[in-house]
Write a structure and sequence with these properties.
mainly beta; 2 domains; two-stranded antiparallel ribbon
Length: 105
């Protein structure tokens, strides 16, 4: 996403806080960032590809807030779809849905 090969209109979300936190700001090493609306109980960020892709990695970056310091996700689910109707959770070794979490120690 950082390279802009994925266009802004391929990045959508369930909500945004305001016009300064739109989904296409969810790119690495960007001065801006995506923030869902606080009333969004199940926020999601969606990246649409023009063709089927095999993803071999995922990088997540936090933001630095003047008021709160560093802010980042603790965990999230990764899901995929071929038709945008039925979504399949990423499954790790067939043990069920995998919650992706981060260790910041």
């Amino acid at each position: 996403m950082q390279s802009q090969i994925i266009t802004d209109d391929q990045i959508t979300s369930s909500s945004s806080l305001d016009d300064t936190t739109l989904p296409h700001f969810a790119r690495l090493l960007n001065d801006k960032h995506w923030t869902p609306h606080p009333e969004d109980d199940a926020p999601w960020l969606q990246i649409s590809f023009d063709e089927q892709m095999i993803l071999s990695g995922l990088v997540v970056e936090g933001i630095k807030s003047l008021e709160l310091g560093w802010i980042w996700l603790d965990e999230f689910y990764l899901m995929y779809s071929n038709d945008l109707i039925q979504w399949t959770p990423y499954v790790y070794f067939e043990h069920g849905e995998k919650v992706l979490s981060f260790n910041f120690t």
